[in-house]
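As the work plan foresaw, the team has encoded backbone shapes as discrete tokens. One protein thus recorded appears below exactly as we store it.

:::
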Amino acid sequence: MRHLLIALAAALVLSACGTVPYTPVEYPLRDGLIPPVNVKGQVETANAQSSTAPVIVYSYGGTKLSSDLRSITDVMVKQTQTELAKAARPETGASKSIELKVESLKSTYKFFYWNSELKFVAKLGNGETVMKTVPHGSGVLLQDLNGCIAESVMVLLNDPKVRAYLAE
């Protein structure tokens, strides 16, 4: 009987453990967070992150969420294209490029609230590099992670170097 109780307790404890896949999705930004920007020429955004190795984006109390940096960067690239299409005031000019690379995304839990941080690098077609660390917080874990990607897009497209490059 004692062994049965120990086995049952171990099964219950281990059932709460494990790594669950996290699939990043676009979290919509409300209108007005990215002001209109003059854009001379077409802009191509690309995923410069080659790593598909699993990374833990959240770990607390035996629960872990895992994704890969290429998938996270894919969402950031697509949302950058979407937000740029909404905010752009197109003009004729030479083509532009932005290569994005998410270097990390991590969320931590603290008393019914999640705080995440995303680090990314944007290489502009003129050779300049923009490196940012973007914090985000939410009362819902998945909104925290997806919202951090969205907020990173907002930070990217509001950066003075990026805006100047798009307008040149």
About this structure: The helical segments are 2-15, 69-87, 141-158, 160-167. The radius of gyration is 20 Å. The beta strands are 18-21, 37-40, 43-47, 54-60, 63-68, 88-91, 96-109, 114-124, 129-138. The mean pLDDT is 91.
